[in-house]
């Protein structure tokens, strides 16, 4: 198990970063959605991290021809997806497993989806149940709730009207992918909008998706193929956020995160940092499926904050925000974030147990935590095998030294994280 020994920063930093990891959500979708075309898709800045490379391998196992040169990827689909000769390994990625369930449910063949020990403990019922109700053939451990999952593709899925009890872009995307091959118009609704890359990208490729006046997304089945993708994947705002927090907690520091997605469903954590008192500026430069530009974050003394709305817009950034909350003036509260318990780790438990080691005062709730701001002390951190926990506490180390154990998980989303962190010194 690899360990990072992070040292306290001895001086402020002022840095523009253009090498932060590419967007993970968009990269997964590029690989998968290219299968809906009959022409080659061209993708620049594909995220070359474990999660998204696994997705690319699965797409290859399904018969697509992949040419990769670093982060430039060309994907040429076959006429008909082929039944793979082996299991499909999603590694650590919930996004891959859940979206592939929807994509494969109506493909002729047998498919086994599995993953690492963390993914095999995450709930899959949320996609398996609604997919089964429209005719999909999906089973797995614990009555079909846990991977390995076994799918036997059916000829036709029924169109559906589904109001999801869980606000999840992965569930929404799985159902949209299934609906593209149903035999009529399907309708999907969520209580609060979750990240909408799937809707934006598929619409851009020519799929017919529209929102009706009751808030249902109406998904029309495909009539033939979609246009191929020609896309440069923007920087991942969730990966950039670690350095936003670093700047916000380090006196006199500034960071600019370049060419990042400014999709409103992805930048809510930056808005929270702004509400806490940091100076945050969004500079929109272009719009390719979604707004893209730079985010500048400058240190200012931080104050406590309540985070209880738009939770799905900042769910992945809550561990990093907990570091900012720990050094802010006064109390901070995170509520309505029960979903944190079913991520790569139980992120509520992982955050508070590590904050406890750092001497931070907190109260744990089923759906969040309260943190009393003060100082962070050096500790030996357990990443729980979760990339976001490892990187969040590595950022805390810039204030007080920190030992972070079991850091290999960082490779799932942000392979050059440590290199960029080292460049702040
Ligand atoms: O669709 C996606 O790309 C993602 C959706 C979110 O998960 P949920 O759908 O479980 O909320 C998020 O936490 C995950 O990192 C990526
Ligand atoms: C939750 C995450 O990803 P996934 O659900 O795809 O494993 C994440 O990257 O924080």
Detailed description of the structure:
This protein has 425 residues and is α/β, with parallel strands linked by helices. The protein folds into 2 domains: 3-22 and 234-422, UDP-n-acetylglucosamine1-carboxyvinyl-transferase, Chain; 24-220, Enolpyruvate transferase domain (UDP-n-acetylglucosamine1-carboxyvinyl-transferase, Chain, Alpha-beta prism), CATH 3.65.10.10. Helix content is 30%, strand content 25%. It contains 13 helices and 23 strands. The chain has a 4-stranded mixed β-sheet. The protein has a 4-stranded mixed β-sheet with strand order 4-5-3-14, covered by helices on one side. Helix 1 runs parallel beside helix 7, helix 4 (125-133) packs parallel to helix 6 and helix 10 runs parallel beside helix 12. It is globular. It starts with a strand and ends with a helix. The mean pLDDT is 98. Shikimate-3-phosphate (S3P) is lined by residues 25, 94-95, 168-170, 173, 195, 312, 315-316, 339.
């Amino acid at each position: 198990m690899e360990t990072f020994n992070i040292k306290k920063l001895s001086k402020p930093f002022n840095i523009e970063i253009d090498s932060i990891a590419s967007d993970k959500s968009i990269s997964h979708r590029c690989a998968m959605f290219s299968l809906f075309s009959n022409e080659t898709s061209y993708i620049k800045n594909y995220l070359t991290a474990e999660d998204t490379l696994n997705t690319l391998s699965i797409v290859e196992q399904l018969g697509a021809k992949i040419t990769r040169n670093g982060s430039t990827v060309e994907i040429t689909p076959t006429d008909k997806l082929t039944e793979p000769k082996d299991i499909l390994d999603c590694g650590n990625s919930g996004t891959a497993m859940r979206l592939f369930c929807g994509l494969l449910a109506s493909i002729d063949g047998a498919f086994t989806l599995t993953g690492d020990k963390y993914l095999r403990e995450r709930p899959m019922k949320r996609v398996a149940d609604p997919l089964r109700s429209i005719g999909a053939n999906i089973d797995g451990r614990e009555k079909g709730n846990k991977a390995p999952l076994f799918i036997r593709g059916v000829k036709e899925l029924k169109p559906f009207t589904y109001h999801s009890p869980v606000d999840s872009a992965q569930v929404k995307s799985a159902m949209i992918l299934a609906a593209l091959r149903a035999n009529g118009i399907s309708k999907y609704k969520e209580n609060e909008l979750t990240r909408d890359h799937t809707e934006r990208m598929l619409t851009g490729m020519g799929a017919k998706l529209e929102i009706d006046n009751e808030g249902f997304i109406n998904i029309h089945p495909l009539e033939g193929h979609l246009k191929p993708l020609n896309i440069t994947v923007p920087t991942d705002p969730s990966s950039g956020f670690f350095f936003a927090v670093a700047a916000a907690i380090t006196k006199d520091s500034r960071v600019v995160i370049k060419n990042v997605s400014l999709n409103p469903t992805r930048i809510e954590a930056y808005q929270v940092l702004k509400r806490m008192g940091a100076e945050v500026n969004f500079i929109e430069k272009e719009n390719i499926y979604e707004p893209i530009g730079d985010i500048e974050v400058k240190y200012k003394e931080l104050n406590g904050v309540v985070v209880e709305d738009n939770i799905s817009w900042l769910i992945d950034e809550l561990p990093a925000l907990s570091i900012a909350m720990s050094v802010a003036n006064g109390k901070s509260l995170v509520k309505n974030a029960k979903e944190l318990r079913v991520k790569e780790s139980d992120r509520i438990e992982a955050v508070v147990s590590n904050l406890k080691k750092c001497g931070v005062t907190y109260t744990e709730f089923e759906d969040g935590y309260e943190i009393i701001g003060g100082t962070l002390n050096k500790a030996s951190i357990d990443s729980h095998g979760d990339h976001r926990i490892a990187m969040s506490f590595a950022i805390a180390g810039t204030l007080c030294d920190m030992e972070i154990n079991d850091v290999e998980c960082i490779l799932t989303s942000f392979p050059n994280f440590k290199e960029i962190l080292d460049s702040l010194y």
